[in-house]
Design brief:
By secondary structure, the chain is of the alpha/beta class. It has helices at about 10-25, 50-65, 75-90, 95-115, 160-165, 175-185, 205-210, 240; strands spanning about 5, 25-35, 65-70, 120, 125-135, 135-145, 165-170, 220-225, 255-260, 280-285, 290-295, 305-310, 315-320, 330-335, 345-350, 355-365, 370-375, 380-385. Helix content is about 25%, strand content about 30%. A 7-stranded antiparallel β-sheet has the order 12-16-15-14-17-18-13. Strands 3-2-1-4-7 form a 5-stranded parallel β-sheet, sandwiched between helices.
C-alpha cells in the first residue's frame, strides 16, 4: 500500500483517522502543523498549540507511527490571515477555515508531505469522496459526511480536482460518537478531548481585538432602519435583484456609535451597546467607506432577509469543471451559505456578469464574502461553490 501522511492535530478525529488507515494497510506517518504563533486577540485557553503538539506526539507513539512536525506559519499568515484582514477592510465577511483547507492543508501541507514520499494526505474531516471516469479521465466528487450533524464538506468546497486526487477522509463514513468510541477502546489520550472552536489554527478570538492588529478603530454612527422600511428589489432584472440592499442615513436615525464598521458583519446581534429595544438589534448592512453600521430591530426585519445573491465570474469555483453552467443556463441545487445551515432549495442562473442564486425562500443575513456551497442532492456531491460578491 502507498504511504499516507495524516495531519495529526491533537484532536480525536485525526487520531482515529490515523488508526483506520493503519487497519486498512496503509504505510502511515503523522505530520503536525504549527501555523500560528501570535496570541493577540485569542481567548485564553483556546487551541494551545503546545498541548496539541504533545497530544499528537502521544497518539503517534501509541499507534507506532513516525511523527513529524512542520511550521507553515509564514504561508498561513500570507495566504489566510492577510486575506482575512483584507476582506474585513473591504466590508466583507471571509471564511478563513475554507481558505485554510484550500491553501494550507491541501496545498502547502500536501506539497511538504509529498516531498517526504507521501502519495496521499489524510485529515479528520467528516466528509467523503468518490471517483468516476469522465471521457477516460478520473473525476472526483466531494460528498457529505455520513454524520449529518458533523458534515464538513462545506469547509472543503474550494478544493480542486488535483487536491481531491491526493486526499483521504478516513472517518467520513463514521459518526462522531463512533469516532469517540474507537478512541476510547484504544485508550487514546484524545478520546475525550473537546472539539476545537474558532478560526482554523488560531482558535477562538475576540474579533475586534484580533482585527485591530491591522485595522484601526474609528468612531462612526449606528443608524437604525425602522421595521416598516421595505427595500426596493428589481425582480425583472436578476443581477439587480441579487445585489445587497443599499441603505443611507436618511432612511433611519442615529442611535449610537461604534468603533469601526469593518468589525461588524451582517446578521450580527451583539456588540452595539445600545438598549431600549423590545427585540434584539441586528446588523443589516455596513458601509466601510463612510464608517456606518446599519441595524434593525427583530428577526423579521425586511432588510435582514433576501431572496437572492450574486457571484462575480472571477469568484466562482466549480469542483467539477464539467458541470460549469454556461451563460443562459440554469440549474436547481441544494444550497447553504454558512456551516450547518440546513440546505435550501435554489436555482442557479448563469449570466454574463456571473452567477445569480435565487432561493425558494428568503435567506437571513446574506453577507458579501460568504461562500455558497451547492449540492446536487441533500447527501450528494458538492457541485458549485462560489464567493458572494
Amino acid at each position: 500500500m502507498s504511504k499516507v501522511f495524516v495531519g495529526l492535530s491533537g484532536g480525536v478525529d485525526s487520531s482515529v483517522a490515523a488508526y483506520i488507515l493503519q487497519q486498512q494497510g496503509y504505510e502511515v506517518e503523522a505530520m503536525f502543523m504549527q501555523n500560528w504563533h501570535n496570541t493577540t486577540g485569542t481567548l485564553h485557553g483556546d487551541c494551545p498549540w503546545k498541548d496539541d503538539l504533545a497530544l499528537a506526539q502521544l497518539v503517534a507513539k501509541q499507534l507506532g507511527i513516525p511523527f513529524h512536525s512542520i511550521d507553515l506559519s509564514d504561508a498561513y499568515r500570507r495566504r489566510v490571515v492577510d486575506y482575512m484582514f483584507a476582506e474585513y477592510a473591504r466590508g466583507r465577511t471571509p471564511n478563513p477555515d475554507v481558505l485554510c483547507n484550500r491553501e494550507i492543508k491541501f496545498d502547502a501541507f500536501l506539497e511538504a508531505c509529498m516531498v517526504q514520499g507521501a502519495a496521499m494526505v489524510a485529515t479528520g474531516h467528516y466528509c467523503r469522496k468518490s471517483e468516476e471516469t469522465i471521457d477516460g479521465k478520473p473525476m472526483y466528487n466531494l460528498i457529505a459526511g455520513a454524520d449529518g450533524n458533523k458534515d464538513q464538506s462545506y469547509f472543503l468546497c474550494q478544493l480542486s480536482q488535483q487536491q481531491l486526487q491526493h486526499a483521504l477522509f478516513p472517518i467520513g463514513e463514521m459518526t462522531k460518537p463512533e469516532v469517540r468510541e474507537v478512541a476510547r477502546s484504544l485508550h487514546l489520550p484524545t478520546a475525550t478531548r473537546k472539539d476545537s472552536q474558532g478560526i482554523c489554527f488560531v482558535g477562538k478570538v475576540d474579533l475586534p481585538v484580533f482585527l485591530q492588529q491591522k485595522l484601526k478603530a474609528q468612531a462612526g454612527d449606528i443608524i437604525e432602519i425602522p421595521k416598516e422600511y421595505k427595500p426596493c428589489s428589481d425582480t425583472s432584472n436578476l443581477w439587480a435583484m441579487a445585489q445587497p440592499y443599499t441603505l443611507s442615513p436618511a432612511m433611519g436615525k442615529k442611535i449610537g456609535t461604534h468603533q469601526g464598521a469593518h468589525f461588524y458583519t451582517i446578521g450580527q446581534r451583539r456588540g452595539f451597546g445600545v438598549g431600549g429595544h423590545r427585540e434584539p438589534l441586528f446588523v443589516l448592512a455596513t458601509d466601510v467607506k463612510k464608517n456606518i453600521v446599519y441595524v434593525g430591530e427583530g428577526h423579521a426585519h425586511n432588510c435582514l432577509n433576501h431572496n437572492a445573491l450574486h457571484i462575480n465570474s472571477e469568484e466562482q469555483h466549480w469542483l467539477r469543471p464539467d458541470k460549469i453552467l454556461q451563460v443562459g443556463e440554469q440549474r436547481t441545487y441544494k444550497v447553504r451559505i454558512r456551516y450547518r445551515q440546513p440546505l435550501q432549495n435554489a436555482t442557479l442562473h448563469a449570466l454574463p456578469q456571473g452567477i445569480v442564486i435565487v432561493f425558494d425562500q428568503p435567506q437571513r443575513g446574506i453577507t458579501p464574502g460568504q461562500l455558497a456551497g451547492c449540492r446536487a442532492s441533500v447527501v450528494g456531491t458538492q457541485g458549485a461553490v462560489a464567493c458572494q460578491g
